[in-house]
Amino acid sequence: MKLSKKVWLIVVIVIFAVALGILFSIYSGQAGERAQLTDRVSNAQTLLPSLVANREKLEDQLTQAESLLDKSQAKFPEVLESIEYGEDFFKVAYGQNLYSMASGCGVELTSLTASKPSNKKVGTVTYSVSSFVVVVQGSIDDILDFIYAIRTGDDFQLPWSAEVTSVKTNVSSGSATVNLIIYGYKR
To answer: What is the DSSP secondary structure assignment for residue 5, as one 8-state letter?
Structure first.
């Protein structure tokens, strides 16, 4: 069976039309994707400066927070919870400690706050120096006995010694705040 030229022409035109239709749909899809990608790149470029600025701001906040943390940590003793210094730091003659010295004087030790230990060099000797705030309650006579016991330093075993720097008493509440410095000889 022989096809006429008209039929062949129609077949070629149909194939050509189908091919053009397929190419047009592929091109249209890619053009749409390209437009979306261009929009995304444009949005990303718009957001980038604000994100960079935000990152720099957050890095500055992190630096400030780390600095504040360092300052805050410097205000607190490293480990003064009667573990690192406890026994050695407050050991006094005959095995008594600061708490038993307080009870021996008839006062109750209600608060003990310590600063971070530091080193102080005098000549060739290096001392470990820590400041303490001790709050005690009791009668005025007993409080004075307690302060005298700390001040004389006779009860502290070497290599430790204590120096009372100030005392604030509250007669109405029967309490006293004693600021003292404890020196320890570093070998």
So the answer is: H
Q: Look at the pTM and tell me if it is higher than 0.70.
A: no
User: What's the CA gap between 80 and 8, in Å, rounded?
Assistant: 101
The answer to whether 92 and 155 are in contact (CB under 8 A) is: yes
| Residues in CB range of 39: below 8 A, 6 or more apart | none
> Vertex 128, ends 122 and 98: CA angle to 5°?
130
For residue 113, the surrounding DSSP H or E stretch is strand 108-114
Report which secondary-structure segment, H or E, holds 148: helix 140-152
- The answer to whether residues 162 and 178 touch, using CB atoms and an 8 Å cutoff, is no
Kind and range of the H or E run holding 146: helix 140-152
Measuring CA to CA, which residue among 34, 47, 30, 178 is closest to residue 111? 178
Torsion, Cα of 177, 133, 162, 126 (10° steps): -160
CA Rg value for the chain: 42
pLDDT digit string (tens) for 81-115? 333 444 444 443 333 456 777 888 889 888 888 77
How many CA atoms, within 13 angstroms, populate the side-chain half-sphere of residue 35?
Answer: 6
Q: Where are the alpha helices (DSSP H) in 5-136?
A: 5-75, 86-90, 98-104
Residues with Cβ within 8 Å of residue 159, at least 6 apart in sequence: 184, 185, 187
**Is 118 exposed, middle or buried, given 0-12, 13-18 or 19+ CB atoms closer than 10 A?**
exposed
